[in-house]
Amino acid sequence: MWKNTPRGWGLTSILLHWISALAVIGLFALGWWMTELDYYDRWYNLGPWWHRSVGMLLLLATLIRLGWRAAQPTPEERGQRLERLAVHLGHVGLYLLMLVVLISGYLISTAEGDGIQVFDLFEVPALISGLPDQATLAGRVHWYSALVLMLLSAGHALAALKHHWVDRSDVLTRMVDPRRSGRP
Amino acid sequence: MIKKTAIAAALAATALVPLSQAQAADYAIDTEGQHAFIQFKISHLGFSYILGSFEEFSGSFHYDPENLEASAANLEVDVTSLTSNHAERDKHIKSDDFLATGEYPTATFTSTGFAPSGDNEGVLSGELTLHGETNEIEMPVTLLGEGEDPWGNYRAGFEGSTTLVLADYGIDMSKFPESMHELELYVTFEGIRQ
Question: How many angstroms separate the CA atoms of A109 and B45, rounded?
Answer without folding.
Answer: 23
